[in-house]
Every structure is written in C-alpha cells, then in structure tokens.
Design a protein that fits this description.
alpha/beta; 41% helix
C-alpha cells in the first residue's frame, strides 16, 4: 500500500466510478482497476462494490477512505513543511456553503484566504445545508457552514456561529410583521427539500394546521428573487441572501415573520479527519473571523452572534433593499 494507490482509491470513491476516476487521473482504466485489485489483495478484504450504476465503497472501503484522506493530507503538509522549514498552511481545502450564505460569505472568505494563506487552494462548494453537513461527516468536505446541524462527535465537530432570522421577502405589505395565518393566504415560492428553510416552513405551517400555498420551488436563490421581482409571489429568506442585482428592486422588501420557528442556528462543521491539518484549522478560524467581521460591521444583518468572542449589537435589517 503506497500513497499513489491511496490517491487512486480516494478518487474512485469520490466519483463513484472507475471510468471517471481514470479520466481525471489520466490513467488507463485497466491499470486503475489493477491497482484496486492489488490493494484489496494486500488488505485481504473487498474495498469496492461494483454494479451497473458504478461503484461504492464497502464498510472496509469507507474506513480506508477516511484514513487515506488523513494520510494524503499529512503527506502533502509534510512536503510543504520541509520546503519552508516550518509548518505552513498549504494544499487544497474544500469548504461547503449553503446557497443563501454563500452570497454574503463566499467572496470575503476567498479574499481573506488568498491574502493570509497564498499557498492554500480554497474550493467552495455550494449546496443544501443538510447535504453539506452529510458530506463533512463522510469526509467528502473538510468544512462547511450548516443550519441546525446535529452533533456527530465521531465524525465531525460543530462550532456555533450565530442564529439567523428568516424574513418574508416580496412586495411591500405595509406591516411591521406578518403572521403565519397571513402567509397562508399568499402565493409562496420556496426552496426545495431538503433546504432548511423549506423544512422550517413546512413544519411551522403543519403545527398551526395551516395550508401552504406553494406556487413554485427551487433551491436557486437567484431564481427565487427573480420570480419575486416578477410579481409571482413571496419567498422566505435570510438577510444574507439579499445580496446581488436580483435583490435590488422596490418590489423586494423584507418583512419580519411573527413566529419564533423562522429562525435557524448557523454553525461551522469540521470533519474529524481534518482536525490535525494545519491548513484546515487555519481556514476554520479564518471562516469564523470573516463571519464575525461581517456581523460586527453590519453587513450580515438579522442575526445574533453566538461565537466565542462578543460582538457589537448589529443594526436592524433594512426593510427595503
């Protein structure tokens, strides 16, 4: 078993395809299959289950995958340390951001990492909060921001960031706050399951025995805002999503929802396989610091900071964007 074999194996598991892995690794498929066969022979256990839809790791394969990720990262960081004569953040770090959060956090995070850690290549993956947390727990992402994440001590650590209020976004209502009963009479445009906003909305309406008038659903925030601007209905979003040209319209106003259910906990999830990584621990801290700065200077509104260091009270959300 050597690092090259582990690199090949990790790529196959992540792509769930020997053919796709061979293409990205620029190696002949028969040769790649032979490497896997040699690895399975040496370890005396099947590592992959092959089927018409591709391949997936066996339980032993999943265990090897987690260890392989750690070993490959440590090898890269060891090379970097020897090159610089000290431990220096370097290599590839994969960070997941929910669709709405990425609109406010992605750019300043990328800028901060580029400035502080020029030898780190930051890959930002956008997706559903639940999918991102699962990816971290399965070691497919190093870090992610997630909503209402559940503790999984054996798989990932969770660091609280803030609580974030959700708002009814759409044409002005002339109200300081809107009730769930009033919302039940409105055409709604909501993110698709398993988006945390959709889960919260479905649960809140069900508990009040109210009908949810769903007109359309999409996980693309830009499309939701375009539909709202076109007068197709109202949506539910945090203030962090109201960034960009789609939100700059007199037809788009954020109204507070008079329900404690429309609030979510925002945390940073970190895979246990990356806890000893120099690069990942630095990016983890940078992410928290960037979020804190956005809250402190009022760019990230409608939130309550829950992180370690206290922050000034944030200004209220502007009612029109």
């Amino acid at each position: 078993m050597d690092l090259r074999q582990l690199k090949y194996f990790v790529r196959i598991v992540e792509l769930e395809s020997i053919t796709a892995a061979a293409e990205t690794l620029h190696i002949a498929q028969p040769s790649l299959s032979q490497h896997v066969a040699n690895l399975e022979k040496e370890l005396e256990t099947p590592l992959l289950l092959r089927g018409p839809g591709g391949v997936r790791a066996t339980e032993a394969g999943k265990l090897l995958y987690r260890h392989a990720k750690v070993m490959l990262r440590q090898a890269d960081e060891a090379k970097s340390a020897l090159r610089h004569g000290r431990d220096t953040p370097s290599g590839h770090v994969k960070v997941g951001l929910p669709t709405s959060t990425s609109r406010i956090l992605a750019l300043p995070l990328i800028e901060a990492v580029a400035q502080r850690y020029p030898e780190v290549v930051l890959e930002v993956v956008e997706g559903s909060s639940s999918d991102l947390a699962t990816a971290v727990s399965m070691h497919r992402l190093d870090l992610s921001v997630a909503m209402d994440a559940r503790p999984q001590p054996a798989r990932m650590t969770i660091t609280p960031l803030l609580t974030e209020d959700l708002f009814l976004v759409g044409p002005p209502l002339g109200l300081d706050a809107v009730t769930l009963r009033q919302m039940s009479e409105m055409p709604l445009l909501l993110p698709s399951f398993p988006n945390s906003i959709r889960v919260l909305a479905a649960r809140a309406f069900a508990e009040e025995d109210l009908h949810l008038r769903l007109v359309a659903e999409t996980s693309a925030v830009s499309i939701l805002l375009t539909l709202v601007r076109a007068g197709k209905g109202w949506t539910v979003l945090p203030s962090s999503a109201l960034v960009g040209p789609e939100a700059r319209s007199e037809k788009i106003v954020a109204t507070r929802i008079a329900s404690a259910d429309f609030r979510r906990r925002v945390s940073v999830c970190m895979s246990v396989s990356t806890e000893k990584s120099v690069a990942c621990t630095h990016i983890h801290q940078a992410l928290i610091e960037v979020a804190a700065e956005l809250v402190a200077d009022g760019r990230w509104t409608g939130v309550q900071w829950q992180g370690e260091r206290p922050l000034p009270k944030t200004p209220p959300l502007r009612q029109s964007t």
